[in-house]
């Protein structure tokens, strides 16, 4: 009997253990299935390169080879003066700009007092003077000079319709106004001697005023100055008459650019540019903008 009691107890314990396992299996939630691993991501594409900027059109002028400064008094219109922006302008400045392009130079323009031009050049404050500077032996000693780039001849001006439009001999025994102590007075003294009445004035303006008042029959002086006066209201009475007068001994050789003596290459380059401008007609185009007669 004792044996069967033990056997039945053992069977009961085994059944209870099996039921516990089943119950535990029913209470444990099913584990979700793991998703298959994703394939590795592809590397990011490199950023797109920016589009290249369009090429700039080539300039018709070559880049400047060097830089120079051109000085002028800017007080002698229309040859040189200050424009509305305060920049040097005029006939000489246009010639300088054209020359700068031809010698492949970047040029700046500056205005200085007349008395400071030659000292400033020697002290290297600038490189070239273009300021209606006449060629003289004294200036040749102090600086280098380019070839002549303009010459305003001597001329006579008289009342419109006066019978003097011919050789200077037509003015014999006439009253001729001149500026005293000038090259034009030197020429008149040499040419007329005592065959005309030479009346001397402190300035050419005084001589021209006398002409307007009929106190003289004609005035002899610089053609450009006389013509410019004739374009003013006070000069409408009169006109240029006769022949151009050119005389190197008394009236000079004309106007040149001033440079330092050691700047020989720059002087040669300017001389070449001035010569080309005359040959190809560029000089005449610039000349005609300012004067109805040639100055070369």
Can you tell me about this structure?
A hairpin with a 5-residue loop joins strand 2 (81-82) and strand 3. The chain has 10 helices and 12 strands. Helix content is 37%, strand content 21%. The protein is an alpha/beta fold. Helix 2 crosses helix 9 (264-279). The chain has 2 domains: 66-151 and 254-290, Periplasmic binding protein-like II (D-Maltodextrin-Binding Protein, domain 2), CATH 3.40.190.10; 154-251, Periplasmic binding protein-like II (D-Maltodextrin-Binding Protein, domain 2, 3-Layer(aba) Sandwich), CATH 3.40.190. The strands form 3 sheets. Strands 4-1-5-12-6 form a 5-stranded mixed beta sheet, sandwiched between helices. A 5-stranded mixed beta sheet has the order 9-8-10-7-11, sandwiched between helices.
Annotation keywords:
37% helix; 12 strands; 2 domains; D-Maltodextrin-Binding Protein, domain 2; 10 helices; single chain; 296 residues; alpha/beta; five-stranded mixed β-sheet; disordered N terminus
Topology of this structure?
Blueprint (H helix, E strand, L loop, with lengths): L1 H26 L38 E7 L8 E2 L5 E2 L1 H12 L2 E7 L2 H9 L5 E2 L7 H6 L1 E7 L3 E6 L15 E5 L3 H10 L4 E5 L2 H9 L5 E5 H8 L7 E8 L2 H4 L3 E5 L4 H16 L2 H9 L6
Parallel strand pairs: 1-4, 1-5, 8-9, 8-10
Antiparallel strand pairs: 2-3, 5-12, 6-12, 7-10, 7-11
Helix pairs in contact: 2-9
């Amino acid at each position: 009997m004792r044996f069967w009691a033990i056997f039945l107890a053992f069977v009961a314990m085994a059944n209870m253990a099996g039921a516990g396992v089943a119950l535990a299996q029913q209470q444990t939630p099913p584990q979700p299935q793991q998703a298959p691993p994703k394939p590795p991501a592809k590397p990011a594409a490199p950023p797109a390169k920016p589009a290249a900027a369009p090429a700039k059109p080539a300039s018709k002028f070559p880049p400047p080879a060097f830089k120079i400064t051109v000085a002028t008094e800017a007080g002698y219109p229309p040859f040189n003066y200050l424009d509305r922006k305060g920049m040097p302008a005029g006939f000489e400045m246009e010639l300088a700009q054209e020359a700068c392009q031809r010698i492949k130079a970047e040029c700046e323009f500056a205005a200085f007092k007349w008395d400071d031009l030659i000292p400033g050049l020697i002290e290297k404050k600038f490189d070239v003077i273009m300021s209606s500077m006449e060629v003289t032996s004294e200036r040749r000693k102090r600086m280098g000079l380019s070839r002549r780039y303009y010459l305003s001849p001597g001329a006579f001006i008289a009342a419109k319709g006066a019978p003097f439009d011919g050789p200077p001999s037509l003015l014999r025994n006439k009253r001729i106004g001149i500026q005293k102590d000038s090259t034009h007075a030197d020429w008149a003294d040499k040419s007329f001697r005592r065959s005309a009445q030479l009346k001397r004035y402190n300035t050419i303006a005084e001589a021209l005023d006398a002409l307007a008042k009929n106190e003289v029959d004609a005035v002899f002086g610089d053609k450009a100055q006389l013509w410019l006066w004739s374009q003013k209201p006070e000069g409408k009475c009169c006109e240029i008459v006769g022949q151009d007068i050119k005389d190197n001994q008394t009236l000079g050789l004309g106007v040149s650019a001033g440079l330092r003596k050691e700047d020989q290459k720059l002087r040669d380059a300017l001389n070449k540019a001035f010569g080309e401008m005359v040959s190809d007609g560029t000089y005449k185009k610039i000349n005609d903008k300012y004067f109805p007669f040639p100055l070369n």
